Structures are given as C-alpha cells and as structure tokens.
Automatic annotation (TrEMBL):
PROSITE patterns: HTH_MYB, MYB_LIKE. CDD domains: SANT (cd00167). Residues 9-61, 62-116 form the HTH myb-type domain. Pfam families: Myb_DNA-binding. InterPro entries: Homeodomain-like_sf, Myb_dom, Myb_TF_plants, SANT/Myb. Its main location: nucleus. Keywords: DNA-binding, Nucleus, Repeat, Transcription, Transcription regulation. This is Uncharacterized protein. The keyword Transcription regulation applies. Residues 118-129, 144-153 have a biased composition (Polar residues). It comes from the Eukaryota. It is found in: Nucleus. GO terms for cellular component: nucleus.
DNA sequence: AAGTTTGTCAACCGCCTTAGA
DNA sequence: TTCTAAGGCGGTTGACAAACT
C-alpha cells in the first residue's frame, strides 16, 4: 500500500511562517476552530499543508503557549519526568502547562542533556534513584496479570478513569506499549521493564478480587496479550502511587 | 573586519495510531 | 474485517544568530 502524501505539495509553501500567515491562521481558528486540519489551509486561504498549520498553531500560535525561558522549576520537572518517561515529549509537555513538546525537546537537547552529562551520575537525585529502584523491585517481584477471565476495559474508559492529567498522549494500544518499552529500554538510567514488570493487582490494597471490580478499578486497561497493561498509564499509576506513599513527594508536582 | 564554529529553535519528515466508512 | 484519511508523535534538519578565532 502506498501512503498518500500528507498534502498536495505542488504550490504549497514551506519554511518559516510570515506574520501575515500567522494572522490568517489565528483569525481563522479563532473564528471557526480547527475541525479539519487538512481542509483548513484551503478554507483559510493559506498556501500551506494542514500539517504545517497544525504544527504552527500547536507550537507557536496557541493562546495558552507560555513564551520565554524555562524556569529552574520547569527544568527540574523536565529532568525528573524524563527520568520516568524517557523521550516521550508529549507526555512530559502534558505536565508542563503552556509548554509544547517541541519546546521541551529542544530544551532537553540544547541545555538539559549537556548539563546532566557534566554532572556525575552520582549527583542525580537520590530520590530519583529510589524511585527507579522501586520500579525495579516491581520488575523483580511481581507477576503479570494475564488472566483471560478479566475483561479488558476500553481504552476510552481507562483513559478517562485514570489518565485525566495526560492531555493527548497516544495511550492504549499494544503497539504503543511496545514503543514505550523500546523507549524505556533505550533510556540509560531506566530500569528495563520485562514482561513480568506489572504486579499481581489482586494482591494490592486498591484492587478487589472480582473481575468485575478489577475491570472497574484497574486503571491499566489490560488490552489483549503481551504486556497485559498499558505501560504509559501504568507508569503514571505507579508514579502517583509513589507520590502518595511519600516516596517522591518533592520530586515533581503535578 | 572577516571567516568559522557553535548554539538555538522553528519547521519538516516519516512513521504510527486511531477513527470511520 | 479491511482500508484509508487524518492527526499525533519523536527524530532530524537547516536557517539564523551569537560567540569565537
């Protein structure tokens, strides 16, 4: 199957946006919204592809974008979240109001990575390491929940139940989880998460034994096969659990 | 002052996921 | 169930500016 081009390239402009184009795009979106990005440029009278319009809007023109340098707190938050989430910039951005994934990615590559490289590994937060160690313990001590008797919750249900603080991350599919695991595995400081990473929830305080209750309470959306849980959501879950337990209370504020 | 290197960041590219027909 | 369009994501590029030689 040949992938259709994202847009009709002929005659469409590329490169930096002009002030006039910005104004046109902003006016159009403020007036009509952005229901269909592909159709938008034509309707707005822009010689750009929809993808370019979307990027310009989400990374620059959106009214809730926070401009200017990152504060120390924001940088610390990025570092800590990167420790947890790896290169999942959109997930990190979801926890930094007003900042875009692109911006965070740039800050990471231009500032934070270098800064961390200068620091010796031992200078990183003890609490971060304790968090990583805690997660490693789960990997060592827990078994995966794969019982076919447990009815998978829908991704939508799961997302709304659980990850309400994550804006638009692509949660919920086996492939995504695979991708997440790849990211995690490639992160230098991250514990490797095997298939047996996730605990037997029936042994946990928050979960009851019945599959019906599990379906309701289990925040992981155990969609089919493989890992049993949605890794992204599970990461959030464990992270919040640790915070509740007072392990990393002052690490990051959500 | 001119040339070169380095840093920054907006924008693009290609792949993946999702929704809907 | 399959196919396709659209949206979203992370990696990468390239233009520009600042710093350096």
């Amino acid at each position: 199957m040949v992938r259709a081009p994202c847009c009709e390239k002929m005659g469409l402009k590329k490169g930096p946006w002009t002030h006039e184009e910005d104004q046109t795009l902003m006016c159009y979106i403020q007036r009509y919204g952005h229901g269909n990005w592909r159709a938008l440029p034509k309707l707005a009278g822009l010689l750009r592809c929809g993808k370019s319009c979307r990027l310009r809007w989400t990374n620059y023109l959106r009214p809730d974008i926070k401009r200017g340098n990152f504060s120390n707190e924001e940088e610390e938050t990025i570092i800590n979240l990167h420790e947890i989430l790896g290169n999942r910039w959109s997930a990190i951005a979801a926890r930094l109001p007003g900042r875009t994934d692109n911006e965070i990615k740039n800050v990471w590559h231009t500032h934070l990575k270098k800064r961390l490289n200068k620091q010796s590994p031992s200078s990183t937060s003890t609490k971060q390491h304790s968090l990583v160690e805690e997660m490693s313990k789960f990997e060592e001590n827990t078994t995966i929940l794969t019982s076919p008797s447990i009815t998978p919750a829908s991704p939508q249900q799961s997302s709304s139940d659980f990850s309400s603080n994550t804006e638009s991350s692509s949660f919920g599919t086996v492939d995504n989880r695979d991708a997440s695991v790849k990211n995690i595995d490639s992160s230098e400081n991250y514990p490797e998460l095997g298939e047996d990473f996730w605990p037997d929830v029936s042994s946990m305080e928050n979960f009851s034994a019945s599959s019906a209750d599990l379906q309701f309470q289990n925040p992981f959306s155990p969609v089919s096969t493989d890992y049993g849980f949605n890794v992204d959501e599970s990461m959030d879950y464990w992270y919040n659990l640790f915070i509740k337990a007072g392990e990393v209370q002052d690490l990051v504020e959500f």
